[in-house]
Design goal:
Blueprint lengths: L1 E9 L7 H18 L6 E7 L2 E9 L6 E9 H4 L8 H10 L7 E5 L2 E10 L4 H15 L6 E3 L4 E3 L3 E8 L2 E2 L3 E2 L2 E2 L3 E3 L8 E3 L6 H6 L7 H18 L3 E2 L3 H10 L4 E6 L9 H11 L3 E4 L5 E9 L8 H24 L4 H5 L6 E3 L3 E2 H19 L5 H10 L7 H5 L6 H9 L4 H9 L14 H20 L13 H14 L6 H10 L9 H24 L3 H8 L6 H14 L3 H17 L15 H22 L3 H9 L1 H11 L7 H18 L16
Antiparallel strand pairs: 1-3, 1-9, 2-3, 4-6, 5-6, 7-8, 9-10, 11-12, 13-14, 15-17, 16-18, 17-18, 19-20
Helix pairs in contact: 1-4, 6-7, 8-9, 11-12, 11-16, 14-15, 15-16, 16-17, 16-18, 16-19, 17-19, 17-21, 18-19, 19-20, 20-21, 22-25, 22-26, 23-24, 23-25, 23-26
Length: 694
């Protein structure tokens, strides 16, 4: 057994492309090596910003020989009457790679046939890898690719070096015009010169001695430890930001950090402004005091061990200071006008060429929010909601948000608060963009929730109405995230709001703006939201897919109620009673599929099992109403479970589709009533009660 090493040196690969690059390279190598017949292979993929590395352990030097038994034509046509081989025999021998004299005969149930035992000699691993690696690397795809040379090479970044070693030997291959060798380079600051890698096992050690850590996990460990040390030295703590640290890991070959200072006067700005400047524009970690307030210091990642002359620190401090000075200027300029004054410009800000300006959109969202508040019985002034719909969008015009788009909503909240606006209003401005999809908290106030919900429903309805519907992975307007946020707000606000009805109201609010029948747009929006509702139940609430399908089939408009039903069903879905009911309910649905609304006549019952089921169904119906009214769905499904044995006996002893039409119709009517009551809770036929996969 030996090891194989691949190092692909490139120009700087974007941080967000590296995780996918590692995934694609690993999957391609694993698949190719498995297809070559190698077992027990260990593959590890690593990277830095300037290189992709793969190591393959426990690799034989060559494939094992493979024996194949081949069957040819019948002997009656393989030889002529004189016993001489025919063209059929000669063709089979040629295919098997042996002479005619080496052919064998084999008796089968169908007679005698020619046969041959062929030994396929295993290929050398170096030969296999020399073909596999260029094919795998050449098949890798990224959202943004580059061409170089004369345009014939196509990869995430141009390739400048290739190391391919099997044990201590170079594996002949060429990738994007670059021939494999054993020469690579160290860190561009600490050890920029070339050096040769002795064998496949030595790269990590050789590079570490030259300032390069190729293992992302190791770089993450070093960064975490260094950040904690620097923060402790300053008497601070690091503001948690896993996403930024993960980006830092991909930005460097050596994970260095330095601490810089911020002029304390800039901390008088809203904290979100300082955080946005540091985090999004300079990719710096934020330090905070024990009470959670911002400290006048930051941590910046550097691709080197140290900053001996302090030039990198000074550069970061200068850029951050300049950005914060700009932010303070924008903040002061914005405050010279009231938010009411700013809002007059919303007419000039286009939302969509067909759907109109932001002002027109705010009109629709405000009207929808007021209508929803009335339906929910919330004590909110309709005119105030309509005006608030404009004010929460007004900061889109401010200097601060034009410069820092990440702060939309947040700055509107600050400006309104500083103007003395009611807390319900300024928190609505701050929160109405939240959450982004299923992640994050919903707005804190009813006003914020209503405006956030109405704004997104108007967006979804409007863009669906003009044909801007997400397709495949394409979603340029972020409608999937918007729909996820709609579902999360509706489900977690505690409102008894029918989301289907609310979506229909949003479509109705676009009358005269979009063409086409409103019913068609409403249906598309409803189906789109239904998909997000199912994902919410599965991915956020954590119920099984079949339980989600079962409860949604019984109605899903009220998401607060739907979630409670789903959780209650999921808790009992694998019980013996519920499994039995699931099977029985499939029969109930099949029998009653074409049945109309008829009345059950107890006088027509002929068997005790009919009377027993009728009585049990009446008890269930009475108790169901109380459970549903109080939203005690655990109790409701417990009552449903009591019908399992009764329904089973009914189907065993009673022939529903009997010859007597009156008796048959009465039995179908009994099952129809039961189906209607069951569907108040869930369609149990959707449950995977027989152990099948979801």
């Amino acid at each position: 057994m030996t090891a194989f090493l691949l190092e692909l040196r490139t120009e700087e690969i974007p941080a967000n492309a590296l995780p996918d690059a590692r995934r694609q390279l690993g999957e391609g190598l694993r698949k190719g090596i498995a297809e070559a017949g190698f077992d027990g292979i260990e593959i590890r993929i690593m990277s830095t910003s300037l290189r992709l590395v793969a190591t393959v352990e426990n690799l034989p030097e060559r494939q094992a020989d493979r024996t194949e038994r081949m069957t040819g034509p019948p002997t009656r046509i393989a030889y002529d009457d004189d016993g001489k081989p025919t063209k059929a025999a000669e063709g089979f021998a040629k295919k098997a790679g042996i002479s005619v004299d080496q052919l064998e005969t084999e008796s089968t149930d169908k007679g005698e046939y020619l046969a041959a035992t062929v030994v396929h000699e295993g290929r050398a691993s170096a030969e296999i890898l020399g073909e596999l690696v260029p094919a795998v690397v050449g098949s890798m795809r990224f959202p943004k690719m580059m061409r170089w040379g004369l345009g014939e090479f196509f990869f995430v970044r141009p390739v400048h070096g290739l190391v391919a070693l099997l044990g201590g030997d170079v594996v002949p291959m060429e990738v994007f015009g670059t021939e494999a060798g054993r020469t690579t380079v160290g860190h561009r600051v600490h050890a920029p010169g070339d050096f040769e890698v002795p064998s496949a096992d030595d790269l990590a050690w050789e590079l570490a001695n030259r300032g390069v850590l190729i293992d992302p996990d190791e770089r993450r460990r070093v960064l975490d430890e260094r950040a904690a040390e620097l923060a402790a030295e300053a008497g601070c703590r690091v503001h948690p930001d896993d996403a930024l640290v993960a980006e830092h890991v991909e930005l460097v070959e050596y994970p260095g950090l330095l601490r810089g200072a911020i002029d304390p006067e800039y901390l008088e700005l809203p904290s979100e402004v300082v955080i946005t400047t540091l985090r999004y524009h300079q990719k710096c970690l934020i330090l905070e005091n024990e009470d959670g307030s911002l400290a006048p210091q930051f941590l910046a990642v550097i691709d080197r061990r140290d900053d001996p002359e302090g030039l990198v620190r000074q550069g970061n401090e200068w850029v951050i200071g300049a950005r914060l000075a700009d932010a303070r200027f924008f903040f002061e300029e914005d405050r010279k006008r009231s938010m009411e004054d700013w809002s007059e410009g919303l007419e000039r800000l286009e939302f969509h060429r067909v759907l109109g300006s932001i002002a027109a959109k705010a009109d629709r969202a405000g009207a929808l929010a007021a209508a929803l508040a009335e339906r929910l019985g919330l004590d909110l002034d309709a005119d105030a909601l309509r005006r608030a719909a404009h004010l929460v969008k007004t900061d889109l015009l401010t200097n601060m948000v034009v410069e820092f788009p990440e702060l939309q909503g947040v700055m509107g909240g600050h400006y309104l608060r500083l103007e003395g606006a009611a807390e319900e209003l300024w928190t609505a401005a701050r929160d109405h963009y939240r959450p982004t999809g299923f992640d994050g908290e919903i707005p804190a106030s009813d006003t914020g929730r209503l405006l956030g919900l109405a704004d997104r429903l108007d967006t979804i309805a409007g863009l669906f109405g003009v044909g801007e519907i997400p397709k495949g992975s394409g979603d340029p307007f972020g409608l999937r995230r918007a729909a996820q946020a709609v579902v999360k707000i509706t489900a977690e606000s505690g409102w008894a709001l029918d989301l289907v009805d609310a979506a229909g109201a949003a479509v109705d609010g676009l009358a005269g703006v979009i063409d086409g029948p409103a019913t068609e747009t409403s249906a598309k929006v409803r189906d789109f939201l239904a998909g997000r509702v199912r994902r919410y139940l599965r991915d956020v609430v954590g119920v099984s897919g079949d339980a989600a399908d079962a409860v949604m089939a019984a109605g899903w408009g009220d998401l607060s109620e739907l979630r409670a039903r789903a959780e209650a069903l999921d808790a009992v879905r694998t019980s013996d009673r519920m499994r039995a009911l699931g099977l029985a309910f499939k029969r109930v649905k099949n029998i009653t599929e074409q049945a109309g609304e008829t009345v059950v006549d107890p006088e027509l019952f002929e068997q005790d099992e009919e009377r027993e089921l009728h009585a049990a169904a009446d008890v269930f119906a009475d108790r169901l109403a109380g459970c549903v009214g109080a939203r005690r769905f655990d109790d409701a499904f417990a009552e449903m479970g009591k019908l399992a044995e009764v329904l089973d006996r009914f189907f065993v002893e009673v022939l529903v589709m009997c010859d007597d039409e009156k008796i048959r119709d009465n039995r179908v009517a009994l099952l129809t009533k039961l189906r209607r009551d069951f569907l108040t809770l869930a369609d149990l036929s959707r449950l995977q009660v027989d152990g099948g996969k979801e």
